[in-house]
Structures are given as C-alpha cells and as structure tokens.
Write a structure and sequence with these properties.
By secondary structure, this protein is α/β, with parallel strands linked by helices. It is built from 16 helices and 12 strands. The radius of gyration is 23 Å and the shape is globular.
C-alpha cells in the first residue's frame, strides 16, 4: 500500500450528479488523505479508442477506483474482475461483488407523486426509458404505486430506448412521445425519470402545442441547475444528497483499500427535497376559492406566521365552506396545507444552508423553534438536525 492512496476516478462530469459525487470524494480525501487522483484526459486530447480506458492507469499500481459504468458494460466488468478495490455507480444494472452507488428510487418516485398530488392533479403520467435502465423502472414503479394509493391510474411511456446508435432513433422516440402525450387527459402531472428526460418531454409538449405547466406539469430528478434553468419554462426537479454519497463512497473505498469493512456495502443517494420551478408552478383545481387560497398560502406561508384567518380574509369565504371545499378538492384542510408549505420551505433551508434551526424558524415566522421542530418530526419522522445530517454533507 502506498503512503498516499492512488485512486482512479472515472465519473461523468457533464452532469451535476457526477460532479457532486466527485466533490464528496474530494472532501473525504482532504480530511483523511491526501489521496492522489488519476483521471482520464479531456476528450479534446484525442485519446478515445476501442480499448478499456483504464488499461494504462492500471500500470500505475493503483490502490482503488471509483467509476461510473462505462459506455461498454464489459469494460467496467473487466475492471471489477481485476480484484482492485472498486466502487461503481451503475447505469444499466447494479454490479455484483462490489459496492454500488444507488439512488433511493422508491423514495424518489413517492416524492414526485406527492408533489403533483399536493398541487391537485387527478391525471398522472410517468416517462422513463422503458426496460433499458433499472433506475428508470424502479422510479416508475414507485411513482405509479403512490398514484394508485391516492385513487388514480397513471399512464406510462414504454418506448424502450436501449442506447440509440443514431440521431434518427432519438427523433423516432420524440415523435412517439408527442403522440403519447396527445393521447392523455389534461391537466396532466408528469414525472420524468431524470432531468434529461424532462427536457425531452418539454420539447415534445412544445411540438404538440401544449402549455407547460397549465396543461402538462413536469417534474424531473437530479436538480441539474444547468439543464433545469436553460429550459423554457424552467424545470422543477428533485434534489439528491449526491455529495454526501460521494463522501460515503470514498469512506467505503478507503476501508476496502485497508482490507477492512463489508465486502459490498451499498451507498444510497437519497432525495432531500423538491426544487419547484415554473414547470410545476400551477394548481390543477377548478374551485376558484380553493385556487385563490392555495395561491395565497404558497405566496405567504413560507415567509411569515400565516393563519387560517388570514386565508379567510384573502378569499372572502366562511371557514366551514373553505374547509369543506379543501376536503372535497384536495383531501386536506387549509391548516394542513399551511403547515405542509412551511415544512417544505424549512426542509429546503435545512439542507441547502448551514443556518441554525432557530434562525430558520424565525425566518418562517415562528417565535418558538420547538413547535416547528415538532411539526417537522411528525411530517418526516426525523428531528431537524438528524435530517440535515442524513442528507447534507457539512
């Protein structure tokens, strides 16, 4: 074993998922290293070829590797078979005998469905990659299960993209996607398996001349800010605890390089919260009083100590009528909606900032942070600081 660990890193950097994994790895190495990282040269150096990309790296006497499944799965299998400590982020299917970095697809699908359900949708759809990728299948199953639990039957796009070899196949898929969208009822709440797929759905909606989010609301996965913010309208997405997973992957690799730890533990990338942008910034409800109340609540509840009486003043309706209309339309009360919006805002600040819980509570209009912490634990099953530790790398 070398004095400084020599670690091969082959993670995709064109998307935020891979970059966040690498940030977590780098933070672990700064604390427990130093490590010496070896990475492929940039594409413009013209070093692409038919041979496995790490063959020349193995001559360097590496101690371990953290890799994304490569274009050819057999290349990754060859690396795994060398006996080198390896952590893999799989794409087509998980790898046996080595630690895998996997997303919590059940929680992801459930969170996406809840986001659309809370906005009043009654028609739902899932757009993935058919049977091509395990994570797409799992997210689709979870999304559909949650939608069915709520009493609705979802639609699924089953066009199977098994690594298209030409631009023409992508064009065929887009045409099929447009035809599929035209066959569905509206307003439609749609989950795409990742942000790239969200972008495909958005373009298909434009071709079909559907308005997003009024006719089709779209939520993706990964919260890649470049992909989401370049889209028009901007795309809502589920944020992941990817940097924390990168840190944990490095810790698992370190133990294996020292001959310690379990043979093949799984590193889980968990969803932390929904980042709502324009593509789901809509309420699919027909009752004008409920719609006005929802808009008022979402505009104000994340900033101040809003009460149901404030909502009643804003919509000019009796308390009993508003509660009855909320129950009929959404299956919850105005008070529950206020608390839900506040918890969502609290969750985002908890994960994305280092502000003390008391300061976050004050920003939301709570005079007593203990009340907010109690509501939060009831909603998530975790105390605020435990939730932060579970999802964020600090």
């Amino acid at each position: 074993m070398h004095e400084h660990r020599r670690v091969l890193l082959m993670m995709e950097t064109s998307r935020s998922y891979g970059r966040s994994i690498l940030r977590g790895v780098a933070k672990y190495a700064r604390t427990h290293g130093p490590w010496i990282f070896h990475r492929p040269a940039p594409f413009y150096w013209g070093n692409a070829g038919r041979r496995p990309p790490w063959e020349r790296f193995l001559r360097l006497d590496l101690d371990g590797a953290i890799v994304r499944e490569q274009t050819r799965r057999e290349w990754t299998e060859q690396l795994v078979s060398r006996g080198l400590p390896v952590v893999v982020a799989p794409y087509s299917e998980p790898f046996g005998q080595v630690p895998n970095i996997l997303t919590d697809d059940r929680a992801i699908g459930t969170l996406a469905a809840d986001h659309l359900l809370h906005r009043g949708f009654r028609h739902f759809a899932y757009c993935g990659f058919g049977d091509a990728y395990f994570w797409s299948r799992r997210r689709g199953r979870s999304f559909c299960e949650r939608v069915r639990q709520a009493g609705f039957e979802p639609y699924c796009f089953d066009f199977d993209q098994s690594r298209p070899a030409s631009g023409q196949s992508w064009q065929n898929q887009q045409r099929a996607l447009v035809d599929w969208l035209r066959s569905l009822p509206q307003p439609l709440g749609l989950m795409a398996c990742n942000d790239d797929r969200s972008q495909c759905v958005l373009e298909a909606c434009k071709t079909a001349e559907f308005h997003v989010p009024e006719q089709v609301a779209i939520i993706g996965l990964g919260n890649d800010d470049l992909v989401c913010d370049m889209a028009t309208p901007r795309l809502s997405s589920i944020a992941l605890s990817t940097q924390k997973a990168g840190y944990e992957a490095a810790a698992v690799l370190d133990r294996q390089m020292q001959g310690q730890g379990a043979a093949a533990p799984t590193i889980i990338v968990r969803p932390s919260h929904v980042v709502t942008r324009q593509s789901t910034d809509v309420f699919a409800v027909e009752d004008r009083y409920v719609l006005a109340a929802l808009r008022f609540i979402h505009r104000r509840a994340g900033k101040e100590a809003l009460q149901v009486d404030d909502v009643l003043d804003a919509v000019s309706i009796s308390r009993r009528s508003l509660y009855d209309r909320f129950a009929k339309t959404l299956g919850r009360s105005p008070h529950e909606e206020i608390q839900r919006v506040r918890i969502d805002r609290f969750t985002r600040l908890l994960v994305t900032t280092e502000l003390p819980v008391s300061q976050i509570a004050s920003a939301l209009g709570y005079t007593d942070g203990k009340n907010l912490a109690r509501y939060f634990k009831r909603a998530t099953g975790m105390a605020p600081l435990n939730y932060r530790k579970f999802h964020a790398l600090r």
